[in-house]
Design brief:
14 helices, transmembrane helix, globular, MetI-like_sf, transport, membrane, mainly alpha
Length: 363
């Protein structure tokens, strides 16, 4: 019976994992580093397993991201939105009409730092209270996209046959559906008010492109040596998909998750602006619509009314773009190994310095 270790005979290294062409020995799969290191020894205690998972999935990615300005800026922006949204929702009272003086310009009052609109609504409070809803929509849309796309694409590519034909047909139908008209019709018919339902609605057909791309990747992976070895030794299909197939797809899935969230952001703002989505909680699209309908584009004293939500949208989008670009380095095995080695050397240097310091103290 063939196993993954069958190649490690006569002192020869295992070749069940493909290597890069330059002979460096680095795994061709972006997540082979994670996968090989992530095989936790069953003899380890619970605390040791937790430490090992934290090192592989938190510490080592952080070593890469902390040296990439795009990752740092992107994480800072997104984290700031999350923190401000939570704190604002907890401690900042919602604004209302007549909350302050009408048409107050921004940066003129400590009570209303970003000014007020035509009706005395505090624009800073309104902008902050719109953050939780848009983040919920973005998260729901991103999760729906990657779950649907990953499940459909993986099953279609791995199973093949009739299952592949049926799922591929469904995928092709959704790919060819007119996205914006479909969303508008569904929004008018169902009038969803939940932020999570709206996020799913806005990505109702976006998952199909991900499913097709994943299917093509799985068709190649299913015939790799290590996948064949897993089938030969009788591993369940679910285990093979989780351990051998999905790790290859993680970089692409992660990037598409961020892309789906950006799609939800712009789609939601646009559809709220034109009045397709039902008005409920405070939303940047509604703010832009109200500002435009009241002539903020042509009245200098109201220009900040339309600029503030626009800036909030653009900055959040830039943060997601930068984070998405930096993820390629996080999943690059060569970069991870380099930064891992640098991190270990730094820790060794710190230990040496600490040891010398203790010796001097004792002396």
């Amino acid at each position: 019976m063939t196993s993954r270790d069958s190649h490690e005979t006569n002192g020869e290294p295992s070749t069940d994992r493909p290597t890069v062409a330059d002979g460096s020995g680095a795994p061709a799969n972006p997540l082979d580093v994670l996968e090989s290191e992530g095989d936790v020894d069953t003899s380890l205690g619970t605390s040791d397993k937790i430490k090992k998972y934290l090192r592989i999935y938190i510490y080592e990615p952080w070593l890469v991201m902390r040296r990439d300005w795009r990752a740092l800026v992107g994480l800072t922006i997104i984290s700031s939105y999350i923190i401000v949204g939570i704190l604002g929702w907890l401690f900042l009272e919602p604004t209302r009409m007549g909350h302050g003086p009408n048409q107050l310009p921004w940066f003129r009052s400590l009570a209303h730092p970003l000014g007020t609109n035509l009706y005395g609504v505090d624009l800073m409070r309104e902008t902050i209270h719109a953050i939780p809803m848009i983040l919920k929509m973005m998260f729901a849309g991103g999760m729906f996209t990657i779950v649907m796309g990953t499940v459909v694409g993986t099953v279609a590519g791995y199973k093949g046959g009739t299952v592949d034909k049926v799922l591929s047909t469904i995928t092709d139908v959704f790919i060819n559906l007119p996205g914006l008209p479909l969303v508008i019709v569904l929004a008018v018919v169902f009038t969803p008010e939940s932020a999570y339902a709206l996020g799913i609605l806005l990505t109702i057909e976006y998952w199909a492109g991900l499913a097709r791309a994943i299917r093509s990747q799985v068709l190649q992976i299913r015939y790799d040596e290590y996948t064949e070895a897993s089938r030969t030794i009788g591993l369940p299909t679910g285990t093979i998909l989780l351990k051998d197939v999905l790790p290859h797809l993680a970089p692409y899935i992660t990037i598409r998750f961020v892309s789906a969230m950006r799609t939800v952001l712009f789609s939601a703002v646009g559809l709220y602006f034109i009045g397709v989505l039902p008005e409920g909680d405070t939303n940047w699209g509604i703010m832009l619509s109200n500002a435009y309908n009241n002539g903020a584009m042509y009245r200098p004293q109201l220009l900040h009314w339309i600029l503030i939500p626009s800036i909030a949208i653009v900055v959040l989008s830039i943060g997601m773009i930068l984070l998405s670009q930096s993820l390629d380095r996080v999943f690059n095995p060569r970069v991870r190994e380099k930064h891992k080695s640098d991190g270990e050397e730094s820790l060794e240097e710190e230990d040496e310095v600490g040891g010398k310091g203790k010796g001097m103290t004792l002396g």
